């Protein structure tokens, strides 16, 4: 599903992430590690938001540097602490992303209702609580027809009912549409009821199988 080779990411000459080789099979992968371990840097790199050295290939076909548009059409990402231009509404952002991701008809409305974003659809994001921002970020990350969705701390500030709805939808996507997910969380992912394919430990910019 996702192959990473010879990846290095550095800031101001200081290497913060090193992934010599990582092959992720289809499914749900959980990345655990403390603050500053490199989880978010890895997710942002895989999402195509950060420059890096190395190769990242999706489904043995789309290499992020060689096929940037096709790759990004198939990889979606939700930030741990999302921020958006405070003058845009939830509907504005959903419409923009839906167009960019070529979302199927009715998908935006379905997700907005499922996650409760329709309750603040016309409000500007500058008025949003952290929970509202989280719900919007999850909606945006599920738009289009992704092959891979990265959710960084999806449980943070999310209410219990919405979390349960989200994880049921993730189960549906993995089984019926073969969508894979990468998750991070400071909370116990076993409580989500998701069938985790692999657990990975991230520390000091290195990723290894959890023991």
UniProtKB/TrEMBL annotation:
SMART domains: AAA. SUPFAM superfamilies: P-loop containing nucleoside triphosphate hydrolases. It comes from the Bacteria. PROSITE patterns: ABC_TRANSPORTER_1, ABC_TRANSPORTER_2. Residues 2-211 form the ABC transporter domain. InterPro entries: AAA+_ATPase (IPR003593), ABC_transporter-like_ATP-bd (IPR003439), ABC_transporter-like_CS (IPR017871), ABC_Transporter_VariousFunc (IPR051782), P-loop_NTPase (IPR027417). Pfam families: ABC_tran. GO terms for molecular function: ATP binding; ATP hydrolysis activity. Keywords: ATP-binding, Nucleotide-binding, Transport. PANTHER family: ABC TRANSPORTER ATP-BINDING PROTEIN ALBC-RELATED (PTHR42939). This is ATP-binding cassette domain-containing protein. The lineage of its organism: Bacteria, Pseudomonadati, Bacteroidota, Cytophagia, Cytophagales.
């Amino acid at each position: 599903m996702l192959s990473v080779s010879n990846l290095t990411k550095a800031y101001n000459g200081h290497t913060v992430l090193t992934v010599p080789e990582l092959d992720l099979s289809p499914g749900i992968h959980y990345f655990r590690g403390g603050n500053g371990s490199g989880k978010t840097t890895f997710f942002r790199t895989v999402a195509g938001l950060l420059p890096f050295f190395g190769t990242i290939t999706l489904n043995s076909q789309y290499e992020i540097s060689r096929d940037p548009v096709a790759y990004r059409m198939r990889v979606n990402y939700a930030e741990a602490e999302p921020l958006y231009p405070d003058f845009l509404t939830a509907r504005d952002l959903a419409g923009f992303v839906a167009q960019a991701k070529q979302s199927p008809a009715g998908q935006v409305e379905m997700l907005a209702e499922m996650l409760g974003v329709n309750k603040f659809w016309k409000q500007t994001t500058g008025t949003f609580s952290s929970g509202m921002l989280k719900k919007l970020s999850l909606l945006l990350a599920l738009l289009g027809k992704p092959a891979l969705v990265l959710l960084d701390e999806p449980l943070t500030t999310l209410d219990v009912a919405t979390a349960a709805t989200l994880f049921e939808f993730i189960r549906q996507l993995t089984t019926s549409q073969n969508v894979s997910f990468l998750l991070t969380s400071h909370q116990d992912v076993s409580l989500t009821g998701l069938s985790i394919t692999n657990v990975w430990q991230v520390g000091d910019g290195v990723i290894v199988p959890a023991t």
